[in-house]
From TrEMBL:
<feature type="binding site">
    <location>
        <begin position="118"/>
        <end position="121"/>
    </location>
    <ligand>
        <name>GTP 1</name>
    </ligand>
</feature>
<protein>
    <recommendedName>
        <fullName>GTPase Der</fullName>
    </recommendedName>
</protein>
<feature type="domain" description="EngA-type G">
    <location>
        <begin position="3"/>
        <end position="162"/>
    </location>
</feature>
<feature type="binding site">
    <location>
        <begin position="9"/>
        <end position="16"/>
    </location>
    <ligand>
        <name>GTP 1</name>
    </ligand>
</feature>
<feature type="binding site">
    <location>
        <begin position="56"/>
        <end position="60"/>
    </location>
    <ligand>
        <name>GTP 1</name>
    </ligand>
</feature>
<comment type="function">
    <text>GTPase that plays an essential role in the late steps of ribosome biogenesis.</text>
</comment>
<comment type="subunit">
    <text>Associates with the 50S ribosomal subunit.</text>
</comment>
<comment type="similarity">
    <text>Belongs to the TRAFAC class TrmE-Era-EngA-EngB-Septin-like GTPase superfamily. EngA (Der) GTPase family.</text>
</comment>
């Protein structure tokens, strides 16, 4: 079975940017507006000898109403169907209550989860990412999806069992 890797996290953290890089397409809508990817989107990825299905989601921020509720529902569905969850956060924006809520959900589901702090380009990644260790989900991977920095290392570690 090809492993399924879900990209979850708040809107605007860079999930679609990472999806496009992994699948080498421009299919997932990348926007300056939070929450534009409204449905789950699937792509096939090959990296460092691993083949996997990657799932992009609209995002989840913990206070959903209306269309946001739908996005949260499909994020939760993506988590359920995933073998590996990449929990994407924004190193520039810092940790939010939504990040804490999502971390609690992932711990309760006992999903194999990797915390990824995106947008470390041009900032001090180590200090920006320190707080994400408190999510209690282990190592925090630093990434700049827009430049492709940190992507290969993070995928190699998260897919090593496969
Ligand atoms: P999504 O809502 O989580 O899918 O986020 P998007 O992929 O649509 O990206 C949201 C915004 O963050 C866009 O303006 C991207 O260009 C920007 N972005 C994504 N990755 C990076 C990165 O590595 N560094 C910086 N500085 N910006 C990024
Ligand atoms: Mg998106």
């Amino acid at each position: 079975m090809i492993p399924v890797v879900a990209l979850v996290g708040r809107p605007n953290v860079g999930k679609s940017t990472l999806f496009n890089r992994l699948t080498r397409t421009r299919d997932a809508l990348v926007a300056d507006f939070p929450g534009l990817t409204r449905d789950r989107k699937y792509g096939r990825a090959f990296l460092s000898g691993y083949e996997f299905i990657v799932v992009d989601t609209g995002g989840i921020d913990g206070s959903e109403e209306g269309i946001e509720t739908k996005m949260a529902e499909q994020s939760l569905a993506a988590i359920e169907e995933a073998d590996v969850v990449l929990f994407i956060t924004d190193a520039r924006a810092g940790m939010t209550s939504a990040d804490l809520a999502l971390a609690q959900h992932l711990r309760s589901r006992e999903k194999t989860t990797f915390v990824v702090a995106n947008k470390v380009d041009g900032i001090d990644g180590d200090s920006a990412c320190a707080e994400f260790w408190s999510l209690g989900l282990g190592n925090v991977y630093q990434m700049a999806a827009a430049q492709g920095r940190g992507v290969t290392t993070m995928i190699e570690h998260s897919l090593a069992p496969y």
